[in-house]
Specification:
The chain has about 500 residues and is an alpha+beta fold. It is built from twelve helices and four strands. Strands 1-2-3-4 form a four-stranded antiparallel β-sheet, with helices on one face. Mean pLDDT is about 85; it is low at about 130-140 and about 495-498.
Length: about 500
């Protein structure tokens, strides 16, 4: 029997090299344009931007610190890392399918026979696997009389092996492996998204702080105008109502500060959540503006075809498509017969004294086959479901690629328009300041009314606020473009062998 069982095992291992049902996966070919339609600026000679740490190109140590702390402490990143570990455990589980399993067994059983049972009943019970007697009033020879008991001891191993003849298990491993890779790319995509969110939230905070600085600077100018109005009113060159108007203008400007200051606190709280800390943790650190933001890096957008390699969400969608394709093979394998080999090796005795001897060895081997006959279309419906899953995965992949192209084109278009607007706003600020100085000089000598002076001051404040907003928009669009090209992750270092 032993020889026959191992012959079956050898036959099974040979057959494992048989066919693998279901479609083989081939990465889809997505047509993309040869270049982006929107205009790109060429980087300055010698300028190097590392896409893996693109935020460093803005030259703000505080931004660097915030992004790097977020990547380490964010619950979203920790959750994505947990999903990677979970997918790897599922792959380990999938690899166990189609391999032999072995369990160690131990057993002690006792039968106490009825005093009214006949000898034939006892013999029948004994032959059913209860063994001989070693207890009660029975003898150790394995024979028991009515009213006596039989105790049996056994230890051994049992094994089973479902042969993966048609590749369902191998397709399962293929699907699990693809899902591990998809989870890893999803984790990287979470890092890309988080870095961009931190940068954009920080730039919005800096905009509020810059607006506060602009308003406070203009308040100094308006206070100077108030002093001038008071002086010339005392000598009778202008009416006293000018002093009241100027004081009202200052009050209105001061009233604009408090909503912006509240917005500063809200943005600091949002940054705290992104970093995975309590909202108020960063109050002291971010309450004051950091270093002046002057650097605006040029993003190396590259070619549309680079997105298929660089964008983590595109890579994750492609791996999900591979997993869905392998799932079809798992479902198709259920249409084919399943072959099982089981074997049991036991040491069986009615006495512990001779349990571990050659005469106690008992072997059992079984080969079984299961043919699917009637399931009312369940298996074929499952195959159809898996095919639809693959179709949906392919459409998600296409949508992701198209979205990636748009994610690059949109900030390129916004950056191009905002650069032109920013240049115009810089000229507008310079003109408004020049005009305000000229009007103030004329007001001192009584050549213009106070209304002209107030209008000039409003124009300066409005132009400077618009320029600050434009500067912030340029930084936010640049961060969006870095995110769009998949910046914010780097390939892990590969181990080298000497």
């Amino acid at each position: 029997m032993t020889r026959s069982f191992f012959s079956l095992a050898l036959l099974g291992s040979t057959l494992l090299a048989g066919c693998t049902v279901g479609p083989n996966y081939h990465a889809p070919t997505m047509p993309v344009p040869p270049a982006f339609a929107e205009r790109q600026l060429a980087p300055a000679p010698g300028a190097q931007v590392d896409p893996a740490r693109w935020w460093a190109a803005f030259g703000d140590p505080r931004l660097d610190s915030l992004v790097e702390r977020a990547l380490k402490g964010s619950p979203d990143i920790a959750m994505a890392a947990s999903r990677v570990r979970q997918a790897r455990l599922q792959e380990i589980s999938a690899r166990a399918v189609g391999k032999p399993t072995v369990d160690a067994t131990g057993n002690v059983s006792h039968i106490e026979f009825s005093k009214n049972a006949g000898l034939s009943s006892i013999a029948q019970a004994f032959s059913g696997g209860s063994g001989g007697g070693s207890g009660g009033t029975g003898s150790s020879s394995g024979f028991a009389l009515p009213g006596s008991g039989i105790t049996t001891f056994s230890v051994g191993f049992d094994s089973s092996w479902e042969l993966d003849l048609f590749g369902g298990g191998r397709r399962g491993v293929e699907a699990a492996g693809a899902r591990v890779e998809a989870a890893e790319w999803t984790r990287r995509d979470a890092a890309v998204t988080l870095a961009a969110e931190v940068a954009q939230a920080y730039f919005a905070l800096r905009l509020d702080q810059e607006q506060i600085a602009v308003i406070q600077d203009e308040l100094v100018s308006q206070q100077r105008s108030l002093d001038i109005a008071g002086h010339i009113a005392r000598v009778g060159l202008v009416p006293s109502i000018d002093v009241t108007r100027q004081r009202g203008s200052i009050t209105g400007t001061q009233a604009r500060l408090e909503p912006i200051r509240a917005d500063v606190r809200v943005r600091i709280h949002a940054l705290g959540i992104l970093l995975g800390v309590e909202p108020e943790t960063l109050d002291a650190e971010l309450a004051r503006p950091g270093v002046p933001l002057v650097a605006l890096p040029v993003v190396p957008a590259g070619l549309p075809s680079d997105l298929l390699r660089r964008r983590p969400d595109v890579r994750a969608a492609e791996r999900q498509l591979a997993a869905s394709t392998a799932d079809i093979g798992v479902a198709v394998s259920d249409l084919y017969p399943k072959f099982n080999l089981t074997g049991v090796a036991q040491l069986l005795s009615t006495s512990l004294a001779n349990l571990f001897t050659g005469n106690s060895l008992q072997l059992t081997g079984t080969g079984a086959v299961q043919f699917p006959l009637l399931d009312w279309g369940r298996r074929k419906a499952t195959i159809g479901i898996r095919k639809e899953d693959r179709e949906q995965a392919y459409l998600r992949y296409r949508t992701t690629v198209l979205g990636a192209l748009r994610d690059v084109e949109d900030p390129l278009a916004r950056l191009d328009a905002e650069r032109a607007r920013n240049a115009a706003l810089q000229r507008a600020v310079a003109d408004a300041q020049t005009t305000a100085r000229s009007v103030e000089a004329q007001y001192r000598t009584g050549f213009v009314t106070q209304t002209s002076l107030l209008d000039a001051q409003v124009n300066v404040l409005s132009a400077r606020e618009q320029l600050a907003a434009s500067n912030a928009q340029l930084r936010q669009d640049t961060a969006a473009l870095f995110k769009a090209i998949g910046g914010g992750w780097e390939e892990p270092a590969r181990a080298t062998t000497g």
